[in-house]
Design goal:
This protein is mainly α. Helices cover about 65% and strands about 5% of the residues. The protein has 19 helices and four strands. Helix 7 runs antiparallel to helix 8, helix 16 crosses helix 17 and helix 17 crosses helix 19. The protein is elongated. It starts with a helix and ends with a helix.
């Protein structure tokens, strides 16, 4: 697909919808003006008994309504954007993925996130996993790239291969890069302002004076009734427009995922699994509705009018125009099996291989080395990226031979620096002592002690 062309089309549609949302707010203000003028008209009198001009009524009413919506919207936007993206993830009970995690799938997730961060040119966000969610889903939260967080479900880690996970993460990074989180929060704030207008008008209607029109009770009731109706109608159409904006931004995120990963098969494969799995992208958490507009796939099941995501088949066809839904019927049976693992994990994990300590592994380890001595550079180059069974066994044996302290140090942010210094220590005692003295002089005795312990 031409992802730049697709992005340009979606951005144009999004701008049109956002403009329509702004026009809807102006329409609400104009409708309230009409109700107020109709209710009071020239019956309103100034301080000296002179009729209040319609222009003055319209001016003050417009200012009051616009100010009310603006204040309520700013309050809601401030509350939604406070705490950063991690606050949203933690509210859903997500688990933070630490930089030095030893969990194989958490490590794969972190590696993928760091790769896409480099490709998209934004800082690495905090990473979370919804361990109890078996559906395939993910979302990006936060008001700006500096406070963003990316959260994925356990189902995404269990069911997606690396390319597909890359596509999903690339999709979420698009929401960060293109400011979709900020746009959604602002639209939610405006909707709250319109809703608050209807709620306040309803309260005024219930408490307005009745039976005596000398104090303008009848006109007040008429205005309150009109504003309440206009407010709720505005919320209805506002939600329709917001859902349309969200659907267009999903197309944009899919196209951006292709840009970041430089291939469409990953994001398309993830969407196919969403369509073919019984669990799909559904979330069980009761708070899932709060992040519905941010999810990779529809986690709630809204009706077509208020759907925050385009139909899955439409998203897949935008990536692969020749896609036929029947093509996923057969693989979906395998995807739904309890023992299914992604294609790139069909081989046992390296951690499992390393724990076997089978004598046969030593023989297998020698095979690649012997073959490497007999072949030329061209053959070795052709083998890159195409590991065979013996190579996996060799790597497992090598991993098993690494002392536990060194292996643990290699997975820590601070201890990995100490490990590098330890590996650089010279075997000659006098030279080694000079190296350690330099470390102590420049970085302190604690670093020398740690490096000495790892270098023994």
């Amino acid at each position: 697909m031409n992802f730049f062309e697709q992005q340009a089309k979606v951005r144009s549609r999004s701008r049109g919808l956002v403009l329509l949302f702004g026009m809807a707010v102006l329409g609400i203000i104009a409708a309230v003006d009409l109700v107020v003028v109709t209710a009071f008209g020239y019956a309103g009198h100034g301080r000296y008994g002179q009729p209040v001009p319609v222009q003055t009524i319209v001016l003050w009413t417009s200012a009051a309504v616009a100010g009310f919506i603006a204040l309520c919207s700013l309050y809601r936007i401030a509350s939604l954007s406070s705490g950063g993206g991690s606050a949203v993830a933690q509210e859903l009970g997500a688990t933070l993925v630490s930089p030095d995690t030893n969990d194989a799938r958490h490590r794969k997730l972190r590696n993928v996130v760091e790769e896409i961060a480099i490709a998209s040119g934004v800082p690495v966000p905090q990473i979370f996993v919804l361990e109890q969610e078996t559906g395939i889903n993910a979302f990006a939260s936060g008001f700006s790239p500096s406070d963003a967080a990316v959260t994925v479900t356990r189902g995404a880690l269990d069911k997606l291969n690396r390319d597909e996970l890359q596509g999903v993460i690339g999709h979420e990074f698009s929401h960060i890069v293109n400011g979709d989180m900020r746009l959604n929060i602002r639209l939610m704030g405006l909707l709250f302002g319109i809703l608050a207008l209807g709620i306040v008008a309803g309260k005024v209607l219930r408490n307005a004076p009745r039976g005596d029109d000398r104090k303008g009770g009848g006109a007040i009731m008429l205005v309150a009734l009109g504003v309440m109706i206009i407010g709720y109608i505005g919320v209805f159409f506002g939600r329709l427009i917001k859902a349309s904006v969200s659907r267009q931004r999903e197309y944009l995120a899919d196209a951006s995922a292709v840009q970041f990963t430089r291939q469409s098969s990953g994001i398309a494969g993830a969407l196919k699994k969403l369509a073919g799995l019984d669990q799909g992208s559904k979330l069980h958490d009761a708070h899932g509705e709060e992040v519905a507009h941010m999810l990779f796939g529809d986690g709630i099941g809204y009706s077509a009018l208020f759907a925050t995501h385009p139909p899955l088949l439409d998203r897949i066809r935008a990536l692969e125009p020749q896609f036929n839904p029947r093509d996923i019927e057969l693989p979906s049976q395998r995807w739904n099996q309890d023992d299914y693992v992604p294609e790139d994990e069909e081989r046992p994990l390296m951690a499992d291989l390393a724990g076997r300590a089978a004598p046969a592994a030593a023989g297998a380890a020698a095979a690649p080395a012997a073959a490497g001595a007999a072949v030329g550079a061209q053959s070795l180059t052709a083998a890159v990226g195409r590991p065979q069974s013996a190579h996996f066994d060799c790597a497992a044996q090598l991993r098993q031979s690494i002392p536990a302290p060194l292996l643990a140090a290699a997975h820590g942010q601070d201890s990995s620096v100490e490990l590098i210094y330890a590996l650089l220590l010279d075997a000659v005692p006098d030279v080694r002592e000079k190296q350690l003295a330099l470390l102590e002089k420049n970085f302190g005795a604690a670093l020398r002690q740690a490096v000495t312990a790892l270098g023994q």
